[in-house]
Write a structure and sequence with these properties.
Layout: H1 4-14, E1 35-41, H2 60-67, E2 70-72, E3 75-76, H3 81-90, H4 94-97, H5 128-133, E4 137-142, H6 174-177, H7 180-183, E5 194-196, H8 237-252, E6 257-262, H9 275-282, H10 297-323, E7 330-336, H11 359-362, E8 363-364, E9 366-369, E10 377-379, E11 383-384, H12 388-396, H13 411-414, E12 424-428, E13 437-442, E14 445-450, E15 456-460, H14 476-492
Parallel strand pairs: 1-6, 1-7, 2-10, 3-11, 4-5, 4-6
Antiparallel strand pairs: 2-9, 3-8, 7-9, 12-13, 13-14, 14-15
């Protein structure tokens, strides 16, 4: 059953999806490995696109592509970018990598938190490594955020205080980062053949001493990113990153290629793409269901222009693939790393925003598109960012990978078969917008257990997508069952909890 709120928003855009009798055929034979383009926006909310129900944001190209795709209506990430990206690239839970939040956002002391690492250590392989061994040519483009500004400080765990970062405009770290020792933590040290724009930065404005207050914000050229070579024709960062994606494909189109295209947009600072687009959004009527466009108009209007720019650039990639005859053997996945930033966007249908453990923070838009291989439609099966690593391995025909993977391959869903029933888990051992907690989702039920005092919240997402009614007291047996399952998961996996926690595990 589609969620009550989801149905109201999605039916306007998804009722016209025609379930074409096209069947997914795993392309794992000989030279038939599929090309893969994995596009991830930064801080793009679940309903900040038309295909997930917004009538205010304009994403016509993504909407058209979604109608030809398998759309995942229950796709999840972590609440912030660092743990989401670590989980995505390694296929592993946060407690394995030690990354629970963006380090510089963490609050409190080391008794009530386990402060996060920033750098993903070498003992956690990333999906580019086995894919390179399988014969893929790989590039990472855009935000990386999986190496810290000073990895040498990431010792003596658990940390006493949260990690910090240099001031905006400070490049004192750069020379050391270009040494072989630290480049080992960059994309080219983790299986990618090329890297454009990826470093420790969480947003593109860090090259400017004024940061978010700069006119450019890192989006308008010059970008001042030391891992993006300036070009005379540069104008807009999202355009330039797309140029790099198309250029890489053009150079490697005779081999299987993998493009890890992680746009910095629409992460703050909000920089309007054009005055014409900005004026258009200023004058739009608000969405009567989501409430988008009703408040904070100047900010959300600028944010909308950044999303429309992503929409245009995704279409540029699709047009190039068609022109070069590459479309039929290329899988395109589109998603986001977490929910929307509450300073930029809003929705009336979800609780919370980026940084929170509620649906507004962790639920993201997602679809998979592969003409002739994946039938169009929707899947309500909950999936998570850790599922992509094993999916890529199966599609590439890699059968000898023996690393730890906490996700499951989505190939059965792409083939319109059932995915083996499972629970989804999150573990966040530090404080940002919520106290440390663990989460379990089983079918329509979501249980949150706070680690310091053991408090419980239980929500039925089928009937209460906005998580307004805590049903823990009304459903003691179900609460006990889910809690036992969550506690067992922590115990079996030796999941660390803050020292001040009242829980045994």
């Amino acid at each position: 059953m589609i969620y009550k709120f989801t149905h109201m928003q999605l039916k306007r855009f998804l009722f016209c999806l025609i379930i074409i009798p096209i069947y997914f055929v795993p392309a794992v034979q000989g030279q038939d490995k599929p090309n893969i383009i994995f596009i991830m926006a930064d801080d793009l909310g679940w309903q900040d696109v038309g295909f997930m129900g917004s009538q205010w944001f304009e994403t016509p190209n993504l909407d058209k592509l979604a109608k030809e795709s398998l759309v995942f209506t229950n796709a999840y990430m972590y609440p912030t970018c660092s743990p989401s990206r670590a989980a995505l690239l390694t296929g592993q839970q946060s407690f394995r990598t030690g990354i629970y939040n963006v380090p510089v956002l963490e609050k409190g002391d080391d008794k009530h938190n386990i402060f996060s690492r920033w750098t993903v250590s070498q003992d956690h392989p990333m999906y580019a490594e086995p894919l390179q061994e399988a014969g893929y040519r790989l590039i990472h483009i855009g935000k990386w955020h999986l190496v810290g500004p000073n990895p040498a400080e990431e010792t003596n765990f658990p940390l006493k205080t949260p990690l910090k970062q240099p001031a905006n405009g400070n490049l004192d770290w750069l020379a050391e980062h270009k040494t072989p020792e630290l480049m080992a933590y960059y994309p080219t040290g983790r299986g990618f053949h090329e890297n454009v724009g990826g470093t420790w930065w969480g947003d593109p404005a860090r090259g400017y001493s004024e940061g978010y207050q700069s006119e450019s914000g890192g989006y308008i050229a010059p970008f001042k990113n030391p891992f993006i070579e300036d070009k005379e024709e540069d104008e807009w960062l999202t355009d330039r990153l797309t140029d790099e994606a198309i250029g890489f494909i053009d150079r490697n189109k005779d081999e299987p290629f993998f493009v890890n295209l992680h746009y910095y947009a629409p992460h703050r600072p909000t920089v309007p793409r054009s005055e014409k687009w900005l004026e258009k959004y200023r004058n739009k009527y608000p969405d009567s269901i989501t409430g988008q466009g009703a408040v904070n108009l100047e900010e959300i209007a600028g944010y909308a222009t950044m999303i429309e720019s992503i929409d245009d650039n995704v279409q540029r990639i699709i047009d190039y693939l068609k022109k070069e005859g590459l479309r039929e053997n290329t899988l395109v996945i589109f998603t986001s790393d977490n929910g929307f930033n509450g300073l930029q966007s809003n929705t009336n249908t979800l609780r919370g925003a980026k940084g929170t453990v509620y649906e507004g923070g962790i639920r993201v838009p997602a679809f998979a598109n592969w003409p002739g291989k994946i039938a169009s439609g929707t899947s309500e099966v909950p999936i998570c960012g850790m599922d992509y690593f094993p999916t890529f391995l199966e599609l590439a025909g890699v059968t000898d990978y023996h690393g730890i993977l906490d996700g499951k391959s989505l190939v059965p869903l792409l083939d319109r078969q059932e995915l083996e029933p499972r629970a989804l888990y999150w573990h966040i051992a530090s404080t940002y917008k919520n106290p440390p907690c663990s989460i379990i989702r089983v079918e329509e039920w979501k249980l949150i257990q706070y680690l310091l005092d053991g408090e419980i919240e239980l929500y039925n997402l089928d009937t209460d997508l906005k998580e307004e009614n805590n049903l823990a007291d009304e459903n003691p047996e179900l609460t006990a069952q889910l809690l036992a399952k969550l506690s067992s998961w922590r115990k079996e996996n030796k999941v660390p909890i803050p020292p001040a926690s009242q829980l045994p595990y």
